[in-house]
Amino acid sequence: MTIKTDLTRRSFIKSAAAGASVVAAPMAITGCGADDDDKNLGALTFAHGVASGDPLANSVIIWTRITPQRPESSDSVEVTWAVSEAADMSAPVKTGTVTTSSTKDFTVKVDVTGLDANKTYYYQFSNVNTAASTTGQTKTLPEGNVTSIKLAVCSCANYPAGYFNVYDKIATSDAAIVLHLGDYIYEYAVGEYGTTANTIDQGRNHSPSKEIWTLADYRQRYAQYRQDSMLQAAHKAKPFICVWDDHELANDSYQDGAANHTEGDEGTFEDRRNAAFQAYHEWLPIRTGNDLSDIYRQFEIGDLVNLQMMDTRQVARDKPVSLADFPDLLSEDAGKVAIAASAFTSAIASSSRELLGSAQHSTVISNMVNNSAKWQVFGQQVLMGRILVPAELLVSIDTLTKKIEAGIDAAEDQAAVNTVITELYTLKLRANQSDPTLTDAEKSRINTVLPYNLDSWDGYAYEREMLLIEAVKADKNLVVLAGDTHNAWASELRLLELGGSTTSNIHAGVEFATSSVSSPGFDEYLSLDAATKVGFESAITALVDDLRYMDANRRGYMTVEFTQTKATAEWIFVSDIATNENITTDSNYVQLAADGATPVPNKAKFEVLAEGPTITSKLVQVV
Q1: How far apart are CA 537 and CA 543, in angstroms?
Q2: Quick one: three-class SS letters along 386-453?
Q3: What is the pTM of this model?
């Protein structure tokens, strides 16, 4: 997500506001005695819990780390693993022994094959010099005809921003699989982004205290996060399917750089990237091939869901376009604005700009078009929905932002921004009601729009359009899942009119985006009491044409349940992250029907029609 900005998402927001107990293990896997081969490592423990991930119908990854007292030792250590159909680990169906060492940061990752489809398994690790690990639970994917599957979707867990209560709720949810869409860790130093006033009292300062950029740094940061009991509980209870976003490397990263990387002081970007990728594969339960940069992969959940986990961040992404490169967009001269807007639109819509890259883009389209599952699902990092706000608002925001950053009293400018939002919201409502008294000038105020986040698909419009066109041509029920923004969203995905300037009435699918585990969203700068929250969310939802739902200030996760007739996204929010006591949840719903089934009575709905192939999905807001 964007931290260092000129006129980006964060300045838009800022200016607008100015685990569980161990299951008893059988003797077969309980260690006792000592092994001289491990003597230089000191005491051994399984201090980072267990995890599973990347489930298939016949296999799953299981993970742990055996934690040595002296990790600097070059000695290797043997770890025995077992998988059972019984929670007490009796009569294991699969067993084995693997060797790990400092070259893998003493992590253990096993691809357990030959399993049965749609079956719950339990797994555990042991070493002769320590007590056995906690027992994890996992499940293989179903195959054939599948009636339903529920996924928990989360992202953006910043350790100093608050307790990981969201992970705790995920652990006890009825979701079968957890999709983690990135920002599993954050790279910042102590006191930087996300740090709260009570972080020190909570003992949640980042370790190491500096910004991380070496392999040792990244390993230490993962080790800190993975000692969190709530994160351990989620991993213990559910298999994870993960992709990285930017903070697993550095803020606003792209294929050959990042906003939060200083060449020289922090080494080369290539070395930093290699270190980050290695640590990620060591600490996450993800299948690892020869190329650590390649994490694009596909999961087929019978005939119900074809899930493609995509990389929109690290490997092929071109450096984002900056609004600062088009200063006349903020001019008060309408002629200059028009010329700059044309150049800006051409830049972000250029066919040469890549987010996925040609190889991944072609593979994603081929897999979607040639797959017959009821639902085609993209699990990826950044918003695909168009979040276009009136350019006039950006001008006011820019003036305010510059004063705030210069330390100048900006109370009048803050009031001006609030006035602009209110005026534009009122004009939008009048336009939606076809008010005949609306003047051309007033229409222009709400119709002259620009993307507020060029880090998202809005900054790579050509690739997005090509994906959506293929979904329409193939008549697919497309659901895009996103993270990154720290707020909850539901958007229509529509094709552009010929010429690419306005959206058409051809619907290609929908997007559901999750809030964050702990990282702050709009609430970082907005004081959102109940009345302000409703007003702000109503204004933004009204001003952004394709946006159907948003939540601006709560931390949580999302579940998406797929059936043969509908997909239902539920946003589940925790009551607090400043404490880990007496945490409750709240929720809102959005449904997407897969065909022409009768809508649920008394529910608002959005009917999706298209020319040519009939896109049969319908967006229905459940109230």
Answers
A1: 10
A2: CCEEEHHHHHHHHHHHHHHHCCCCCHHHHHHHHHHHHHHHHHHHHHHCCCCCCCHHHHHHHHCEEECC
A3: 0.90
